[in-house]
User: Fold Dihydroorotate dehydrogenase B (NAD(+)), electron transfer subunit from Sporomusa sphaeroides DSM 2875.
Amino acid sequence: MYKIVEKRQLAPQIYLMDVEAPRVAKSAKPGQFIIVKTDEKGERIPLTICDYDTVKGTVTIVFQTLGKSTLEMADYQAGDYFTDFAGPLGEASEFISEEIEALKQQKIIFVAGGVGTAPVYPQVKWLQQQGVQVDVIIGARNKEMVILEEELKALSARVYVTTDDGSYSRKGLVTDVLKELIDNGTRYDHVIAIGPMIMMKFVAKLTKEYAIKTTISLNPIMVDGTGMCGACRVSVGDEIKFACVDGPEFDGHLVDFDEAMRRQAMYKTEEGREMLAMEK
Ligand code: NAD
Ligand code: FES
Assistant:
């Protein structure tokens, strides 16, 4: 059993929880994810790790209430327990295995969309701890939906915020800000985009035009999280990959986003799920 030690609401429908999971905290790395189950009968919910504290033995997760399971999860309070908290799963961010001196020479920018700002946080924190300063673009629907802006600024990141409706900071999409920065002469070596699939698709489309290396983090439907069920299948270049074991990060210029979005939509219906199950 995994105890919730803190719960906070970050924005409408977006919650942060610190969960006591010492074994996961000890081996977690930026970019990895966990699968949480509220109770025995609960659905398995994959969530990218937002932070971890090896001293306290806690792992921070951030989630948005999108359906029955996440709504149930949002009812849990500090002091309650999750039945299952499996992880860390997936591959760590590629930064972990890169030479720190080489990273310091690069101009890196993160593009964070909505609740996708949460998985950006541990990567920026890890890089800052290594002495690598980065830029971050946060895009949200409106002022209320902007999360972790102050926390990212506290890591000395240069943060640009944009809102779809212009209710805070500038008005526009993350791609508008990225294009403007590049066109104004900032030479980025690496873009990391994490957020809704459609956002990552258009960030990758833009950076392809400028030939900038781009990494995206997929958050597809997952069932077993072990590479066996095929639920999180994705086409990357000529290869078939499974986000749970091969990802969640992939080369944004190679991912077939249209197929991934079609599969995501199919999982929303019983018939679609049956069709996808027949693929295996
Ligand atoms: P959202 O719909 O509010 O979008 C966030 C920002 O993305 C927008 O403000 C905009 O700047 C940008 N964006 C959206 N559409 C765009 C387009 N067509 N072109 C360019 N930019 C665009 O985001 P949300 O509601 O917070 O997102 C929820 C989704 O994010 C869920 O589907 C969830 O699965 C996904 N998610 C992904 C990850 C991940 O690891 N990839 C993590 C958490 C959540
Ligand atoms: Fe089953 Fe990835 S979740 S293969």
Notes: The chain has two domains: 2-89, 95-217. Residues 73 and 186 are 42 Å apart (CA to CA). The pocket of FE2/S2 (inorganic) cluster (ligand 2) is lined by residues 222-225, 227-232, 242, 244 (CB under 6 Å). The chain has a mean pLDDT of 92.
